[in-house]
Amino acid sequence: MIEFHNVSKVYPNGTRGLNNINLTIHQGEMVVIVGLSGAGKSTLLRSINRLHDITEGDIQINGQSITEASGSGLRRIRRGIGMIFQSFNLVKRSTVLRNVLSGRVGHHSTLRTVLGMFPAEDTELAMDALERVNIRDKAYSRADQLSGGQQQRVSIARALAQQPQIILADEPVASLDPLTTRQVMDDLQRINRDLNITTIINLHFIDLARQYATRIIGLRAGEVVFDGTPEEATDEVFSHIYGRSIHRDEVLGDHPPGEDIVTVIPDPAPARTDGVKS
Amino acid sequence: MNTLTTKPLWYRIRPWVWIILLIAIYLWAFNGLNFEGVQSTAKSVSLSIIDGFAHPDWDYVYDPEGEDLLRGLLDTLIISILGTFVSAFLCIPFAFWAAANVSRLRAVSGTGKVVLSVIRVFPEMIVAILFIKAVGPGSFAGVLALGVHSIGMLAKLYSESIETIDPGPSEALTAAGASKLQVLWFAVLPQVIPQFLSYSLYRFEINMRSATTLGLVGAGGIGTPLLFALQMRNWNRVGVILLGIIILVVLTDLISGWIRKRIV
Amino acid sequence: MKAATIEAPQRYKRYLTWIFFVVLIVVCAIQTDVTPYQLIVGLPQMGTLLAEMVPPDWSYLPTIWKPMVETIQIALVGTMLGGILAIPFALLCAYNVMPNRTVSVPVRLILNLVRTVPDLLFAAIFVAIFGIGPFAGMLAIMFFSFGLIAKLTFEAIESIDPGPLEAMTAVGANKIQLIVFGVLPQAMPHYMSYLLYAFEVNVRAASVLGLVGAGGIGLLLDRSLGLFRYDRAAIIILLTLVIVLVIDYGSTVLRRKLL
Q1: Residue A137 with chain C: CB contacts under 8 Å
Q2: B7 pLDDT band (50/70/90 cuts)?
Q3: Domain ranges of chain B
């Protein structure tokens, strides 16, 4: 369970990144955060594992305050939270397996990991994580030999190797093509359901948000302006979140990007919504 | 009004000012060299040097009993290998000190950069002389001289490669609960080690050249027998030593260049 | 099935490389008697030496001023003459100016040979021929910077934009016209920058030439050290350091303006 209590973030230059956020996210939810760029999506996500510090309020992860944690206490909370990034953030020159194993470092002493003495179970865990995203056969390849979609799956495996209760994904598909986007989102959804891992994803494609989320949170200028189910998130709601009409490039669909479309958003296919409702 | 008329004039005469300045500097510089004409012996000395180089002292190449060319060259090679090895490690803390993205304070990397440029401009011959006074003449002084002098350049190159790494992996490791040292070990080092190795090899090539003359001040290697040969005007021996140096430098350049290509 | 067959690749090669490297270092250390013990024994001596350098003998400053100026003069003249000599060689080496390999390959070979000869050896030989003094040092610096500048410049020439060269050939220019109108305008800023860089290197080199009798400040350094006048050596080293830093800084600023 993640709880936000009156969370605000003011940047040193006076800009308000987050404004009095109050949220409770329960175990096993698949939350998608939407909003314009600059609305505070990334700040909100990164405040959960404190890659960004907040200036007011308190964030609690399973009853423990990460806002007050420091040193090894902070690292212990962080190792329970996996994170996936837009640009994968893999060490490109290292092997896939070593990248996945690096997700385990928070579980062991610094000395032990630096000497490379990961227990055998860790290697097994890493291999299982790779198996789950279907790239076990790439374990000994160098990360830079993989395609973008494969690299993102490696970073999902790295997050899984942490055995987290929570996975944060910051624009995980923004640098992928539509086909691999679906694969990566399917992987995240499957992991969310199979392992009951709370998953919080920043997205800017509204059709993806509707299709995969169990709950959608809309942010505008650092404030929560919508919080509800995908069914409640109608086009009008999105227009309200964005403060303007919806553009074609905010829909993954099959439209050429760039042009304005006001309300012509295809309804998600029935087969897909079935899964989301569960 | 005034600026309007003077500016074009200044632009027109500026190249001439530079040229006149340069000519003045060089007249002054040439004057300072007070060349007193070629000595009367110059011709005969030149001839004996050419004769010596044409007939190298082949007996000196290998001498089972004492100091010979091969032993001197081996010493030279070892001095530059060890010197490079020492500086490749010593410079790592300096590199992190001088890298702008390691500390938030600009003053930290700024002072680091200044320290490195001071080390860099310190001629290695002077460093060698100081170490000879400390540890006595011989290869060890040469190793220390190269080891300390090379820090200046190597740490600068290292710090530049630290400055250009991708910050993403570090962020990912921090998010996974890694400590500072773990971030360094798993995210930073894998990215910079190949470049560190390549720069060290490059510095090894430079050190190889320096090591050939360190012996002129007594810091070991082929330079010492070279100095004796020069003092005794034994040009046949100078010739064979020069040949040995050329072969050694060319060979190590080739090998090091080949390895560098394979690393990157 | 497929997943089960994944095996860790063999790492013998990596381990062997490491073992080879460690053995190499150890053998090297044994061969030259280089041990940390020696360093620990030597360090106090280093301390005494440094202690004797303080305070530097400031009264020696007027005496060393002239040789210091001479050092700079050696570097200035040597760099210029070496730089001038480098131009024809650099042009002859560059494949895009001199496609005829029977010329460019031997010229490259000569350049590489010149670059392997240590500057102090050049100096010692010229001292033997022309006698002790700055002239021999200047010649040594000239040959040394000739090799350096020629190599850097021909690499710069080879990386210039081939467009203007093609245009010149198309309008029927001869080789000289090609060089003057196509190559020089592009290569000139690089060449000037290398000239300044070589000057920086040469000031440092010239400061030690005196060790073999080729003029400059090095002679006085050698003498002070021989007489155990470390306070004088200190002032010489300090002055050299200041001069070199000032020249490096000025040259860096000028080079940034050029490129």
Answers
A1: 2-3, 6
A2: low
A3: 51-263
Same domain, C46 and C97: no
Domain B51-263 -> CATH class: mainly alpha
Chains that touch B (3 or more CB pairs under 8 A): A, C
For residues C39 and C106, state if they share a domain. Answer: no
- List chain A residues with CB under 8 Å of C6: 127, 136-137, 139-140
Contact A102 B177 (CB under 8 A): no
Rounded Cα–Cα distance for residues B140 and B214 (Å): 11
Give the model confidence (pLDDT) of A239-250 as tens digits.
Answer: 888 887 777 677
- How many domains would you assign to chain C? 2
Residue C33 shares a structural domain with residue C159? no
- Mean predicted confidence (pLDDT) in A105-124: 88
Q: Which chains reach chain A with 3 or more Cβ–Cβ distances below 8 angstroms?
A: B, C
Measure CB to CB from residue A93 to each of B173, B175, B191 and give the nearest one. B191
Domain match, C191 and C252 both = yes
Domain that holds residue C15: 3-52
Between CA A101 and CA A55 the distance in angstroms is 33
A114 inside domain: no
Residues 6+ apart with CB under 8 A from B16: none
Check CB contact under 8 Å for C221 and B126.
yes
DSSP helix/strand/coil, B136: coil
